[in-house]
FAD-binding oxidoreductase
Amino acid sequence: MPVPDPALLARKAEIVRALQRIVPGEGVVSEPAGLVPFESDGLSAYRQTPLAVVLPETTAQVSQVLAWCQANGVKVVPRGAGTSLSGGALPLADGVVLGLSKFNRVLEVDYANRCAVVQPGVTNLGITAAVEAAGFYYAPDPSSQIACTIGGNVAENSGGVHCLKYGLTTNNLLGCELVLMSGEIVRLGGKAMDADGYDLLGLVTGSEGLLGVVTEVTVRILPKPQTAQALLLGFPTVEAAGATVGDIIAAGVIPAGLEMMDNPAIRAAEAFVGAGYPVDAAALLIVELDGPEAECAELTGHVRALASARGADFVRVSQNEAERLAFWAGRKAAFPAVGRIAPDYFCMDGTIPRGKLPQVLTRITELSAHYGLGVANVFHAGDGNLHPLILYDADRPGELERAEAFGADILKLCVAVGGVLTGEHGVGVEKRDLMSEMFDATDLACQQRVKCAFDPGLLLNPGKVFPTLHRCAELGRMHVHRGKLAFPELPRF
């Protein structure tokens, strides 16, 4: 992380007093004990105590906080529920954490336009809870949906088990209110299906708090499907399960969800939840099909035949809604379940072409043996988004470093086979130093120019995403060779 600025550290009392004038009462946390809960996000291997935490309640307060911080050169780290798994909300010792937890209201539900307007502190599952009585739901469903907030989902472009058919956050986002570092409040998109001009909403989605602070979100809500049915498919080999994933998609079947777990993950989840998983299977697929009842029945038979052709030796189809939810309960609880079999774990997040699943899973097993660390694989197989959980014990000397190296090799492998570094968890600090594996210097400079357009002082969430952060003036320099600019005939303004 950036080296703390001693001058800012010395100004802590002044900064706290200024923030208290903007957000009075208990809206500013500055005592050491109160700062402890904010020193880490879901990537708990990395910790840093912030200078202070401010918890505004209104957009006007957010605007004033950011404007004051920009005028006084104070860094700001936006934070939602802190469930980020890439260190995206890791604080700075000389920076202020801007928490949005008090922005927790559903502002409007518009069934005629099939959308809801919510504050960023509303949980992902809270949106569905607000509309399910009318037969609607919010499709993206990360495993942390009971805790993660919609603002964080926008920041990381979160997905979930149903993203294969219904898309990531970006596919279900219609508009947002954004406060820039200058304090300016802007609106992007709205209730309409599309907006004119540049796709700034798409740019902000997944920007990891580097461009602005989201204070209101308009999301698409969908009517619940007539029927939903899930299948559990157990396989004697991981390769057979991976090949079946490709077979299903190649056959033109697009399930609502298509998830895969290997044996360590199966055993951990079954012991934790008791969902009826086949604990002797090398790999398990959970396939959900939804839509009209006749369509589900037809597709279920098709999927069963494809799985049988690949040697599936366990097939179970949900017979009612309770059983379908039980199938998913094991998958949703897989991360905490794995926490029972190892003191610590790293949750990786690379994405690969589906056809490379068998090859990549085999290589992950080889890397596990090489580093002497266990791994449990739980991932969104339908769209190739891997979540290997690397098991280690931080109290054992060297294991954290080995886990980091193991994780880096997995992500490098993802890029090497034609994939990308992240599917939904973001870059944060976890993948920051691997960005050059995927992007060259020109790519990174272009991305940083976008950052400069929104935040010229580089005060929003510094130290994240970019392995080397240049000053905006450096990115705008022109090269002069022997007293001449390149292309001197072109007019310059």
